[in-house]
UniProtKB/TrEMBL annotation:
Cellular compartment(s): Cytoplasm
Primary localization: cytoplasm
Any coiled-coil regions, as ranges: none
Organism: Lupinus angustifolius
CC terms in the record's Gene Ontology section: cytosol
Residue ranges occupied by any Phosphoribosyltransferase domain in the UniProt entry: 45-165
NCBIfam families reported for this sequence: apt, PRK02304.1-3, PRK02304.1-5
SUPFAM superfamilies (alphabetical): PRTase-like
Subunit structure: Homodimer.
Stored Pfam families: Pribosyltran
Descriptive protein name: adenine phosphoribosyltransferase
């Protein structure tokens, strides 16, 4: 579900978040309107709004783990984890974590990729939210859910800053709720 449809309709923080995200046309390839969250990170008020909205949502849900997807989930996850009193666990691309890991492969538009989790980082029964910057097809989030469920964690919800309009109708990822703050913008006034 989108935040505006869940009690935040008209909340000026959502507009500030949306406006702080730069749109870069034709990156990394022709036809892609890249949603650049680095400009959101430069705007301390918009970045704080982003974290505050997530913290407000998850504060009273007994979440013990915030799992952030590499790499942009790392930008929001630790702050959210601190705000709700949970631990942060990174879900990384292959060969980035030292020590024993478990892996989950997933299909991309052109090929495959993989997420890894340190063995022992998440305990059976721990309540987890998964955070990333953007959801398009949901493949990466589905892989994260599968990886966490393999260690018997309870994935409570997936959360993203940006969600393409197509995800409005599918508020669930393999049975898990999805919470999104804003839709992507089409054009940046700076270009």
């Amino acid at each position: 579900m989108f935040a505006a449809e869940n009690g935040l309709k008209g909340d000026p923080r959502l507009e500030a978040i949306s406006q702080a995200i730069r749109v870069v046309p034709h990156f990394p390839k022709q036809g892609i309107m890249f949603q650049d969250i680095t400009t959101l990170l430069l705007d301390h008020k918009a970045f704080k709004h982003t974290v505050d909205i997530f913290v407000d949502r998850y504060r009273d849900m007994n979440i013990s783990v915030v799992a952030g997807i590499e790499a942009r989930g790392f930008m929001f996850g630790p702050s959210i984890a601190l705000g709700i009193g949970a631990k942060f666990v990174p879900l990384r691309k292959p060969h980035k974590l030292p020590g024993e890991v478990i892996s989950e492969k997933y299909v991309l538009e052109y090929g495959t990729d993989c997420l890894e989790l340190h063995v022992g980082a998440v305990q059976p029964g721990e309540r987890v939210i998964v955070i990333d910057d953007l959801i398009a097809t949901g493949g990466t989030l589905k892989a994260a859910i599968s990886l966490l469920e393999r260690v018997e964690a309870e994935v409570v919800e997936c959360a993203c800053v940006i969600g393409v309009p197509d995800v409005k109708g599918q508020c669930r990822l393999i049975g898990k709720p999805l919470y999104v703050l804003v839709e992507p913008r089409e054009v940046d006034e700076c270009f």
